[in-house]
């Protein structure tokens, strides 16, 4: 049963004392419901502390990414599932939970289930929690399975390292993976998805790691979600990566209360572009369990997209808004039907259809741009 609509005027902001109780309560919820527990690096928490001090409450954008809000306990959209993108049915290698093959030309490899910090909105938390319970992944063993599998699928041209966060691996493991892949006869392209730079720039402190990324000619895709994540420490690492000619990109979710306004997205994209990081796409959060605090109706997603594309210069217009789904990534142009009474949207891609349960408008409380951009 959906909770009643909330409106900014009817809800008092969460004060730090109440937040401490919410954090404690969340530890129990995470254990019982198999969500990722709180994990915040000292670096990121310092930014959150600054935000709370400036705002006087805990509804700020960075806080919202890492700590639970009241809505996390109380608001559910209905039709929420554990594994919307269907990772498990695409784990095609017997004995492995680290290899996901969904698209013909690329394979996802998850060499670790660990991340530098945990994101409240993480869409893979069900799979990651299961892997945490099963114990640490043995990198060499899974890599051996990956190499054997790649030998059977010549159409694969790219290996995407994701997770968990591959850049939290010890250097020797990362080296083993990258050098093994580079030595394969068909030499797949390598892409790495990471949020470690937002959480802990010191993850990139070792020049040998940066040299390794450059030597493997990787594409690095960061998941920055808010412009205040781009600070001097982050820019310093980006400079070092650029100096080594590493290709840098960003890809991020549109998150209610974090960045759900054209002004926030524009600031993030422009700050990254100034740092020579190209934004590839913005994705709609998946309807997984307990995701309601971060989701919004597609109509509002499209309104944000339109506000950006009509006001943006040409270099930013190539940024795509996508929704990941069991049939692959779908976009606005893939919509073939909408049932507003039932709250569903049907997408069709390459002959396959998927019915998406849209987020109910009555639960949507848009983020306040003055809070999300509190520095002005
Ligand atoms: S870094 Fe990525 S995989 Fe890890 S918790 Fe955040 S969103 Fe999930």
TrEMBL record:
The chain's coiled-coil residues are none
CDD domains given for it? Radical_SAM
Q: Name one GO molecular function term.
A: catalytic activity
Domain Radical SAM core per the UniProt entry, residue ranges: 101-322
What InterPro entries does the record point to?
A: Aldolase_TIM, Lys_aminomutase/Glu_NH3_mut, rSAM, rSAM_sf
- Cofactors per UniProt? pyridoxal 5'-phosphate; [4Fe-4S] cluster
Leader sequence residues: none
Keyword annotations for this protein, in alphabetical order, are: 4Fe-4S, Iron, Iron-sulfur, Metal-binding, Pyridoxal phosphate, S-adenosyl-L-methionine
Q: Which family does it belong to?
A: Belongs to the radical SAM superfamily. KamA family.
Instruction: Please identify the protein, giving its name as recorded.
Output: Radical SAM protein
């Amino acid at each position: 049963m959906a909770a009643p609509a909330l409106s900014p005027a009817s809800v008092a902001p969460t004060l730090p004392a109440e937040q401490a109780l919410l954090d404690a309560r969340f530890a129990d919820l995470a254990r019982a419901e198999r969500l990722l527990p709180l994990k915040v690096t000292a670096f990121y928490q310092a930014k959150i502390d600054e935000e709370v001090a400036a705002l006087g409450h805990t509804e700020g954008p960075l806080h919202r990414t890492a700590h639970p809000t009241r809505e996390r306990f109380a608001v559910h959209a209905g039709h929420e599932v554990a594994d919307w993108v269907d990772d498990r049915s695409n784990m095609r290698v017997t004995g492995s939970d680290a290899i996901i093959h969904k698209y013909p030309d690329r394979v996802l490899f998850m060499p670790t289930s660990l991340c530098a910090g945990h994101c409240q909105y993480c869409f893979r938390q069900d799979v990651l929690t299961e892997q945490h319970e099963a114990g640490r992944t043995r990198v060499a063993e899974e890599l051996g399975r990956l190499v054997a599998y790649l030998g059977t699928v010549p159409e694969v041209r790219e290996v995407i390292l994701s997770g968990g966060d591959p850049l939290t691996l010890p250097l020797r493991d990362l080296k083993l993976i990258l050098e093994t892949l580079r030595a394969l006869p068909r030499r797949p392209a390598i892409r790495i998805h990471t949020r470690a730079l937002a959480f802990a720039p010191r993850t990139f402190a070792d020049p040998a790691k940066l040299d390794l990324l450059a030597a493997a000619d990787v594409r690095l895709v960061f998941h920055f979600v808010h412009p205040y994540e781009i600070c001097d420490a982050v820019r310093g690492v980006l400079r070092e990566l650029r100096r080594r000619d590493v290709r840098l990109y960003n890809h991020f979710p549109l998150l209610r209360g974090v960045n759900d306004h054209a002004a926030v997205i524009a600031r993030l994209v422009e700050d990254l572009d100034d740092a020579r990081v190209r934004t590839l796409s913005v994705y709609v959060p998946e309807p997984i369990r307990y995701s309601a605090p971060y989701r919004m109706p597609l109509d509002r997603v499209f309104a944000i997209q339109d506000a950006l594309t009509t006001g943006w210069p040409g270099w930013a217009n190539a940024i795509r808004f996508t929704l990941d789904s069991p049939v692959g990534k779908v976009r606005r142009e893939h919509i073939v039907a909408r049932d507003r009474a039932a709250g569903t949207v049907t997408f069709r891609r390459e002959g396959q259809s998927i019915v998406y349960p849209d987020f109910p408008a009555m639960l949507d409380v848009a983020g306040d741009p003055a809070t999300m951009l509190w520095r002005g």
